[in-house]
Every structure is written in structure tokens, then in C-alpha cells.
Design brief:
Low-confidence stretches: none
CATH topology of the largest domain: Rossmann fold
CATH class of the largest domain: Alpha Beta
Largest sheet: 2 strands, parallel
Number of domains: 2
Catalytic activity: beta-D-fructose 6-phosphate + ATP = beta-D-fructose 1,6-bisphosphate + ADP + H(+)
Order of helices and strands: HHHEHHEHHH
Number of helices: 8
Protein name: PFKAL protein
Strand order of the largest sheet: 1-2
Pfam family, one: PFK
Number of strands: 2
Radius of gyration: 23 Å
Strand content: 5-15%
Shape: elongated
Helix content: 40-55%
CATH architecture of the largest domain: 3-Layer(aba) Sandwich
GO molecular function: 6-phosphofructokinase activity; AMP binding; ATP binding; fructose-6-phosphate binding; identical protein binding; metal ion binding; monosaccharide binding
InterPro entries: ATP_PFK (IPR022953), Phosphofructokinase_dom (IPR000023), PKF_sf (IPR035966)
Distance between the termini: 50 Å
Structural class: mainly alpha
Length: about 200
């Protein structure tokens, strides 16, 4: 459950083995869970997370997420030495354990369906989101044609119109709204004219 799992510990932290990861490659979404974690935004929460990691001898993290997740990872990494010192002072870990776990290594991977991160062609999650959108469009196109109706489809993407643009191109959409290119005045008449054609 992301940082929530680090803070809560217990059964949230377990070793992945061949059996636990077999037959999941085709699944969309995050199989290991994801959660917004208010506690991890506080030093006390990060202290609990550090304690749980040290308890399991984990000093390498692979963080897949967007801006919040990767910012949290950077803060956690920069505080790591201080968190261990605090755990030693409080008697929660020994100095020997702190020395053994003195370095936290983090690999950050951008996981965002928005595809709005520079330096990468496509962020993790974009392709599977696009695949799901096209499945839905394929399913409703037949219904729209048989009922002679216009369908409006809204896709996710927060402030980024990538998914809308690419799915609109792939499906031959007649009209498209994306945040990067707000509609000009009189768009309603143009759209009705286009749909009338």
C-alpha cells in the first residue's frame, strides 16, 4: 500500500517470491496496492517508516509514482541519517543496526497515466490507461451507431490532455477538448455544424 505500508509495517511488508508475482503481468493497475498517506508527510510518520524498514533490513526502495511519491522519496532519503540517529537516541535500534543500515538507496520511476513528465517517452501506466480507453470506445461505438447518437467520453489526465488527444486520434473522434488548447469563442456552433455533417 505504498508509503502507508511503510508506516504501518506488519503484514504490509513481505518478501515477494516467484509464486506471489506469477500471473500478474497482464493485470492493469497496481497489484501491490497504492494509498495516499498523510502520516508519511510528517516526520513522525517517516520515523515509523524508517523503523519498519530497518526492522526488515531493507535499505533499497523502488518508488513508482507521480510528483507526491517522488518528492516524498527525496525527503525520506535526505532525512534518513537523522531518522536513524533519532531511533538510536530513543533506544528503538542499536548503533550497530544504524551503522548497518546507514544508507538508503532509492530508484524513482514515474508512474502516472497523465504522461506529463519530461525526459521520458511514456510514463508507467499511460499505455494501459490508453488500452482501457480504446476498449471502452470500441464497445460504445457500435451502440452509438445503432442508436444514431453522439456519445461524450471523458477520460482522466488531470491537467494533461495526452490521453484525450491520443485516444481521440485513434478513435476518429469528431470533437476534442484538452486543457492545453482551450476552445475558442463560438466553439459550440462549430461543433454542432461538424456533428450535423
Amino acid at each position: 500500500q505504498g508509503y502507508e505500508g511503510l508506516v504501518e509495517g506488519g503484514d504490509n511488508i513481505k518478501q515477494a517470491n516467484w509464486l506471489s508475482v506469477s500471473n500478474i503481468i497482464q493485470l492493469g493497475g497496481t497489484v501491490i496496492g497504492s494509498a495516499r498517506c498523510k502520516a508519511f508527510t510528517t516526520r513522525a510518520g517517516r520515523l515509523r517508516a524508517a523503523r519498519n524498514l530497518v526492522e526488515h533490513g531493507i535499505t533499497n526502495l523502488c518508488v513508482i509514482g507521480g510528483d507526491g511519491s517522488l518528492t516524498g522519496a527525496d525527503i525520506f532519503r535526505s532525512e534518513w541519517a537523522g531518522l536513524l540517529e533519532e531511533l538510536v537516541r530513543e533506544g528503538q535500534i542499536s548503533e550497530e543496526v544504524a551503522k548497518k543500515n546507514c544508507r538508503l538507496n532509492i530508484v524513482g520511476l514515474v508512474g502516472s497515466i497523465d504522461n506529463d513528465f519530461c525526459g521520458t517517452d511514456m510514463t508507467i501506466g499511460t499505455d494501459s490507461a490508453l488500452h482501457r480507453i480504446m476498449e471502452v470506445i470500441d464497445a460504445i461505438t457500435t451502440t452509438a451507431q445503432s442508436h444514431q447518437r453522439t456519445f461524450v467520453l471523458e477520460v482522466m489526465g488531470r491537467h494533461c490532455g495526452y490521453l484525450a488527444l491520443v485516444s481521440g486520434l485513434a478513435s476518429g473522434a469528431d470533437w476534442l477538448f484538452i486543457p492545453e488548447s482551450p476552445p475558442e469563442d463560438g466553439w459550440e456552433d462549430l461543433m454542432c455544424e461538424r456533428l450535423g455533417e
